[in-house]
């Protein structure tokens, strides 16, 4: 069935002319109202990107970053742009002698530019006093100060901020599109990131290649999508913070600042924030954010309102870079290991810095590196509040930590912290060593590893020049006063721990080191004479072993000898069950007192695996051979340390000696139940250093670390846990 649509009536000539006239009239009326609207007084066309880069006008565009932006709002005195449609703010401006917002006209042509009354110029209808009062009140109203310029790429800006305040910075498009920063000479080749230490070389190489392929793919895609954009890295450190002045103990660390970054608007940090704003609260005085931009980048720092009992302000340092973060922090396990302590010092080392072979150029470059790349901050538990809230801030630690290592005095034996390169320990690879002095006995400390700038260069204009911080390593000093820390011995070069001592018989560690080291070397000399009688350089059929050589025997003997002639000392007051008591019948050197007779008469069985004898259960602590003397009789005769406990050498050192040397030399280890337990300890697969061996260290890990959303922030608070590095 065919359906025919109805036709519209045909207009007469008069009707057509009337319709055309009516349409034209309505169009003219619409144009009249549009042109008379005050809103169009603020519309303007932005110039090209090159024109924008050369724009020196004191006002800032809200969207000056985007070349496609078609509108901007004038900023008063370089501060937050004023919204011309904010009626309350417009009335507020009028109350202080400023012209209403609709009277501010901006002409993009410089020769016809109308003076902007909110751009820091003179206010036309107000006195200087009214002008300043108006600015102050409006600034307070906006909760902000004028935009401050960051000094440049990799150059931080520093400022003081009070509670409940917002401060804004601008990283200019000239710096965003400017030249790259100085990276310095960098570290020697073969550097192994601390985070990669737990993997094999092959795994690290495979992961490195995969990362490089992924980075290349991402860069290629990013280059196609954003030909004119760059990544801008923003990082901040808290340098100082409010102090507690309230009643009682400080309840917590001061509240943290908050970092805001936007690549589109100077309104960053405000209640009407731009949609691309990224907000990150600082954790332990550190935060970081990265954004992509082709022009100005806006940064805001907001401080919280101070609570009751707190007074003062914050000082912070913020930097932007097109290369990498100026400040850095890492919340992983600390790559700083505790070796040992005595009552006034502590010895720590870093993880291996390279896996290069000992005969390679890279290995030698690490051992000869100057200046040393890492530093350490040390803080006592009784002054921990001084850095609480800034433990991830290089700037804050530099200004507030109790002790800090100095490159200028790294070789000075009298410096509070002495630094050097060593190979002692795991893998015999290059490590940086720290000796912290001037500590108090029986006290807990934090040692925080940090990198000077980017390791080779530090300061303004340097990529990563602000420094890097890792989590803290906790340790406690000894208390009894008869254990002294020895290291860097001439013969027993791998020995580094506390040994039995007496400050009255050996007043300094130099003489004590000579006593132990010389004795071990003399014994080794006698051994070498005996080893010369063994046919070492002969045919394989005539050698004493097909798998071991005389070199293996020499190495095993030296390692065993240094461990047994230089015992590792622990406080007698320690209750660790695997320690062996020594010299229990002697007087304590601190006060010439003796252990109570009741303690000496306590039942004590040093070898639970010994054959059962009728009188075994009747042994007492003061009467057993192992507990009533030192391993080495010269220690009791010359050092006279008094009662102490020994961390026994590992039994595998003795087993390795027997396996590696000719049977003609007569080496043998005691059997279980026949002296092995009293003379040697067992390595532990779990937590703790259970026996002494060359290079044994404790790692204090970060149990309970604070993890935060990464948009650029790391954090952590370290608690104690230890395990052996084997």
UniProtKB/TrEMBL annotation:
Region: Disordered, residue numbers: 117-162, 180-227
GO BP annotation list: calcium ion import across plasma membrane
Any matching Pfam family: Mid1
Biased composition range(s): Polar residues: 143-162
GO MF, one example: calcium channel activity
Bias-annotated ranges (Basic and acidic residues): 201-218
Name the record gives this protein: Calcium influx-promoting protein ehs1
UniProt source species: Elsinoe batatas
Lineage, uppermost ranks: Eukaryota, Fungi, Dikarya, Ascomycota, Pezizomycotina
């Amino acid at each position: 069935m065919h359906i025919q649509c109805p036709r519209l009536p045909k207009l007469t000539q008069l009707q057509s002319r009337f319709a055309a006239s009516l349409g034209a009239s309505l169009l003219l009326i619409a144009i009249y109202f549009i042109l008379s609207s005050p809103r169009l007084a603020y519309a303007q066309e932005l110039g090209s990107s090159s024109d924008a880069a050369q724009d020196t006008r004191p006002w800032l565009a809200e969207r000056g970053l985007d070349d496609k932006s078609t509108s901007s709002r004038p900023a008063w005195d370089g501060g937050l742009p004023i919204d011309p449609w904010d009626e309350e703010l417009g009335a507020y401006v009028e109350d202080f002698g400023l012209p209403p917002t609709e009277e501010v006209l901006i002409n993009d042509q410089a020769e016809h530019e109308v003076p902007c009354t909110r751009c820091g110029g003179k206010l036309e209808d107000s006195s200087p006093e009214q002008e300043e009062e108006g600015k102050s009140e409006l600034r307070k109203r906006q909760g902000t100060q004028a935009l401050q310029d960051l000094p440049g790429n990799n150059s931080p800006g520093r400022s003081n901020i009070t509670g409940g305040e917002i401060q804004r910075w601008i990283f200019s498009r000239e710096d965003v599109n400017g030249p790259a920063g100085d990276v310095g000479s960098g570290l020697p080749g073969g550097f192994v990131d601390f985070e990669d230490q737990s993997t094999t070389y092959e795994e690290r190489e495979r992961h490195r290649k995969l990362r490089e392929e992924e980075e290349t793919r991402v860069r290629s895609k990013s280059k196609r999508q954003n030909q004119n954009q760059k990544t801008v890295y923003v990082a901040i450190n808290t340098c100082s913070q409010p102090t507690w002045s309230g009643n009682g103990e400080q309840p917590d660390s001061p509240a943290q600042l908050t970092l805001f970054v936007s690549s589109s608007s100077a309104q960053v940090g405000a209640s009407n924030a731009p949609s691309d704003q990224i907000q990150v609260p600082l954790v332990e005085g550190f935060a970081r954010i990265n954004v992509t931009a082709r022009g100005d980048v806006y940064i805001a720092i907001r401080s919280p309102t101070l609570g009751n009992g707190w007074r003062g302000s914050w000082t912070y340092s913020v930097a932007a870079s097109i290369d990498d973060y100026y400040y850095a922090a890492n919340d992983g396990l600390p790559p700083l290991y505790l070796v040992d302590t005595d009552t006034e010092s502590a010895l720590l080392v870093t993880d291996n810095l390279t896996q290069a072979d000992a005969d390679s150029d890279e290995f030698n470059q690490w051992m000869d590196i100057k200046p040393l790349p890492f530093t350490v901050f040390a803080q006592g538990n009784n002054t921990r509040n001084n850095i609480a809230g800034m433990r991830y801030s290089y700037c804050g630690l530099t200004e507030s930590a109790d002790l800090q290592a100095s490159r200028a005095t790294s070789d000075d034996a009298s410096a509070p912290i002495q630094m050097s390169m060593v190979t002692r320990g795991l893998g015999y690879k290059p490590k940086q060593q720290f000796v912290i002095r001037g500590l108090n006995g029986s006290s807990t400390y934090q040692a925080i590893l940090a990198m000077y700038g980017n390791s080779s260069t530090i300061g303004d204009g340097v990529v990563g020049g602000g420094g890097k911080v890792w989590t803290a390593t906790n340790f406690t000093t000894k208390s009894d006063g008869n254990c002294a820390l020895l290291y860097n011995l001439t013969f027993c070069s791998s020995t580094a721990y506390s040994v039995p001592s007496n400050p009255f018989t050996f007043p300094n560690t130099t003489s004590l080191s000579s006593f132990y080291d010389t004795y071990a070397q003399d014994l080794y000399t006698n051994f070498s004479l005996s080893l010369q009688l063994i046919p070492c350089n002969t045919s394989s059929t005539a050698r004493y072993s097909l798998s071991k050589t005389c070199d293996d025997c020499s190495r095993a003997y030296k390692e065993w000898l240094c461990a047994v002639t230089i015992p590792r000392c622990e406080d007698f007051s320690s209750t660790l069950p695997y320690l062996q008591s020594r010299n229990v019948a002697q007087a304590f050197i601190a006060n010439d007192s003796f252990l109570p007779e009741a303690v000496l008469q306590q039942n004590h069985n040093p070898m639970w695996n010994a054959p059962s004898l009728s009188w075994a259960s009747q042994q007492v602590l003061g009467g057993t051979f192992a507990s009533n003397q030192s391993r080495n009789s010269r220690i009791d005769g010359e050092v006279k340390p008094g009662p102490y406990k020994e961390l026994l050498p590992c039994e595998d050192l003795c087993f390795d000696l027997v396996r590696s040397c000719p049977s003609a030399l007569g080496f043998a280890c005691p059997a279980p139940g026949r002296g092995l337990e009293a003379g040697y300890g067992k390595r532990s697969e779990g937590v703790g250093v259970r026996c002494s061996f060359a290079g044994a260290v404790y790692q204090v890990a970060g149990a309970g670390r604070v993890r935060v959303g990464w948009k650029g922030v790391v954090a952590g608070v370290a608690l104690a846990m230890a395990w052996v590095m084997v």
